[in-house]
Amino acid sequence: MSRIPLYYTFGNHMHWVDMQWLWGYYVLPDSIRDMIHFCRETGAKGNVNFDGIGYEKLAAENPEALTELREAVRSGMIEPVGCSYGQPYGLFHGGESNVRQRVYGARTVRRLLGVWPKTFWEEEFDFFPQLPQMLKGTGFEYASLFFQWTWHTPEIPKEEVPVVWWEGQDGSRLLCATRNKLNLHQWPEDMDATFAELASSPPLPNSSTPPLILQWLELMPSPDWMCRSEVLLPKMRELLADERFEIKMATLGEYLRGVTAAVPARKYTMDQVWHGMSLGKNGDFMRRESFHGESTLLSAETLAAVLSLYGRPYAQWDVYPTWELEEQWRNLLMAQHHDNDECEGLCGHVGKAQYRTSWSEAIGISERLKDRVATKFDVSGDVIWVYNPLGWTRKWHVVHREKHLTVAEIPAFGWTSVPLNAPDVDCGRWLVKGRVARFRRGSVEIDVDLDRATVVHFANSAFPNGIQLNGQPLWEWVGKDRSGKDFRVLGQDKWWEGDRDAPSITGDRLLRFPIAFEGHPEEGFTLCLSCEPHHEGLEIKVEGVVPQTSPGLNDAFGFRLRIPEPFSKMVSDEPYGVSEKNPIGRFFKKYPQGDWMTSPQWFETVERPFTASTFVDFHNSETRSGILVAHDGSRQWFVEADGSVRHVLHAYDPWDEEKEAGGSNNNFLILPHPPMTSSELWRGAQERFRECEEEAMELPGPGFPTTFSALSCDAPNVVPTAFYRETEDFSGKYLDDYAGKGMGYPFVVRLVEFDGIETEATLTIGGTVAKAFKTNFLGRALEALDPAKVKVHMRPYEIATVYLDIVEGRKQTRDLDAKREIWATVHRVDD
Q1: Phi and psi dihedrals of 817, rounded to 5?
Q2: Cα distances (Å, whole numbers) of residue 617 to 283, 392, 546, 634, 671
Q3: How many independent structural domains does the chain possess?
């Protein structure tokens, strides 16, 4: 009887972030050597899954270990997989952050290991509908969607077949090893269970696609760790000795390259998966820091790219502060690491410092750049200079010294100047009468019940009769305190009896009032409500300290939003994508009873969860009018059994043990709206939380027009999301077909099609274009574009990259040799 072919491969997951921070310098070198030992003892071939920053640290701190790994890769024993720079839960971070994670990681692997990565496989949950496109655009061909349970409990649909085509939102496909019954966690006990199942139900011989045992390992040969080759080798020898099977060793990419049979396609939706994370923990501080960091960096690098079109004098030595900006991207990408998310109480303080560094340095870069624009900044100047970091024309409410000047239109990736003597605009006003606060401006009517701290009437031009609340509040506060009691808002009469501040109004336009809960009178937060003149929505800020909650997601603090019946369709966004949500899933989430490493674990069941990167929209499927709820980073939502929607603002995660942070600083926009497309919804959410930058000045500097746009796009469904520059010598290294070749500092544009419509988009550039190319994310030229009129063909849901050589932005060198006499003999003071 012939033996049944059975392939085996493993992924060795380890990282500099957290692991080296806590265990020491030996972590990555010893993991490499234990992995190679495991392969030599068993004949196995495997896959290394380190963070990109880890490879860089190896090069600096232990080049001998890196040389051993590089040789193992060269020989075919080991294949690098995953290869992001900071191993993020990609779903929790912005679209551009995800692109940079893949690009920075791939370039690092090529530079230090000598190969471009081809296979995506991460131990931690890294999934969203646009990820296949991002991976394919960075040179990946293969993937696996088996994520291990660690602190979190990720779920991907289980398959009966070993391989499928994993298809993304735009149709991009990667050949993908599935989550199935032959997936193994790192524990010998899990190997026992799988081997027993193999004995009772072996795979069928002569299968068109041979089965694959796919195992995650986290090798670190330390007595203070549980996954070491010494505890795994006995089980592997047992498998190799089983006479029923012909064990074939391969790396994951090698196995998938050998698949020649037709395999089914799978287009997994967000409703089918569960990230398994304690999303919402600690007020989602890490997610909001990530959003803020990405926004600040995008604004800084766009400003640098725009101002570089005006030549010298440069803000710094060179045409563009490339290294400074890319270093802050690296800080941001490291901070987005999954351990900073899930192990926030253990190592999150380092991630928080990296977030602070990235956005604070980016702000400093912007300030130095803005010094280039004006001859003099002066609060008594003549104009307000307003810079728009977004790739479309937007409205902005200009305020100077409490004077509401105008609602200015600012061009895409550009600026305009607003005279200080511009007329005031009507901002509307709040009036408090009894226990109700009312706001009125034009067609906008908002009534707030102060006792319950919620909206009870909301009308605007889209809904002149108001959204149909039927006497119910738009939202109510929910959650349980540490004793298991429901949070109940402390009425304003009881609040005032305690000599607390009454609701206050700032300049008529901002309503502030305190919220506390029964049984917790000393704890509470401030609710700030306003309605800015450039839109008809309600802006909400939650600031303060949330009382301690019961552990887990089901009892987390937040609000329950009651959606009027006509708005039955729900969409929300993921990184560079928008998709419909119809959550029906029932999943598990686990927590420790005490010490995170050694105590027993308990489970809670979560039902109908979904996520929203920056917004969720509830609308009528026929008219598309509805209610947009945009936010700055609180991503976890649930559909309740009664059809309402619950949003988590703060959860206590027992994995953090006693290091709970109950502070909250959440921002929202609730906007009843007329029909809006996905691209309009996405732009609207970004506008709310991507602020313009204003400076008072006497006049724009010499050579600067009062209004300017560096780049815009004529297709309403195509959104320019990033505009920056990179350096040819670094970014183009190892690429023979690099589109920026000869450009020195090519301009890079990111375009995203959100509405699922095939389109030809024309770019208008504020300069003379000498060359233009459509490229992949690494800068490989795919198609030369006509520089006279840059038209880009966009597939439905495509994320496209364009490289431009703009003549006005070329580096202007100085003839320093002509000034040689200044330096050449100045030291000869005795002469």
Answers
A1: -60, -30
A2: 22, 21, 26, 15, 9
A3: 3
Is 687 contained in some domain? no
What is the tens place of the pLDDT at every residue in 608-665?
A: 999 999 999 999 988 889 999 999 988 999 999 999 999 999 999 999 988 776 667 8
Regarding whether 741 and 656 lie in a shared domain, the answer is: no
Where do the DSSP E strands lie in 334-449? 383-388, 394-400, 403-410, 414-419, 429-433, 436-441, 444-449
Q: What are the beta bridge partners of residue 406? A: 398
558 Cβ neighbours under 8 A, 6+ residues apart: 280, 477, 478, 479, 646, 647, 648, 649, 650
- 716 vs 95, 388, 630, 694, CA distance in Å? 19, 18, 20, 26
Same domain, 68 and 170: yes
374 pLDDT band (50/70/90 cuts)? low
Residue 748, both tokens:
């890079």
Q: How far apart are CA 787 and CA 714, in angstroms?
A: 16
Task: Give the pair of three-digit tokens for residue 311.
Answer: 């030549």
Q: Which amino acid is at 557?
A: F
**What range does the domain containing 784 cover?**
710-831
Task: Output the six-digit token pair for 121.
Answer: 């496989």
Asked, for residue 261, whether it belongs to a domain, the answer is yes
290 confidence band (pLDDT: 50, 70, 90): very high
CA nearest neighbour of 368 among 300, 434, 431: 300
Residue 807 falls within a domain, yes or no? yes
Q: What are 688's two structure tokens? A: 């709310």
* Residue at token pair 């937040």: 558
Question: Domain for residue 159, yes or no?
Answer: yes
DSSP secondary structure of 648-711 = EEEBB-GGGTT----EEEEEEEEEEESS--HHHHHHHHHHHHS--EEEEESSBPTT--SSEESE
Distances from the Cα of 528 to the Cαs of 14, 454, 511, in angstroms? 44, 12, 6
**Alpha-carbon span 259 to 261, nearest angstrom:** 6
Peptide bond before 313: cis, by omega within 30 degrees of 0? yes
Half-sphere exposure of 422 toward its Cβ, with a 13 Å CA cutoff? 19
For the chain, what percent of residues have pLDDT higher than 90? Answer: 71
Residues listed for the chain: 831
Same domain membership, residue 819 and residue 765: yes
